[in-house]
Amino acid sequence: MHLARDHHLDLVTLWPHLWLILPEEARTQVTTARRNLTRATTLTAWAVLYLPLATWWWPAILITIALALTGWVRTRAATDTYALLLEATTRLHTHNLAEHLGLGPTSPLSHKTGDALTQHLAPSPPPPPSG
Question: Is the pTM above the cut of 0.85?
Fold first, then answer.
């Protein structure tokens, strides 16, 4: 959201291209953050799976509540971390992507750079049918 507002960068369009040129350390950190988010949401999913069991076995409701609360807290934290890391990574490495694409000097990151990158990387619409 901040990237679109501040720099006119469309992360959905930009990210696959940026990912290809990221240094290994940055890729590892992003992958780890994404893995942590997956684990947190999986914990919440286990809470949903335990819920039907509570109709037959009352301690399952305690397990469900514990899993749901823990999953919710971890998911919130993991989501915040992942979003912050994606934004920081994009801000730090967009300049390198612009250079790789031959869009010229782009320091500092600006609306003009964001517009140029998004326009350059956005998929083009299919050609109109002939005939």
Answer: no
Q: Provide the 10 A C-beta neighbour count for residue 10.
A: 16
Q: Say what the alpha-carbon torsion angle 28, 116, 2, 109 is, to the nearest 10 degrees.
A: 80
Nearest CA among 73, 97, 103, 100 for reference residue 3: 97
Distance CA 21, CA 6 (A): 23
Cβ–Cβ under 8 Å, residues 91 and 60: no
Using the 8-state DSSP alphabet, how is residue 55 labeled? G
Q: How far apart, in whole angstroms, are the C-alpha atoms of residue 129 and residue 113?
A: 33
- Using 50, 70 and 90 to split pLDDT, how confident is the model at 122? confident
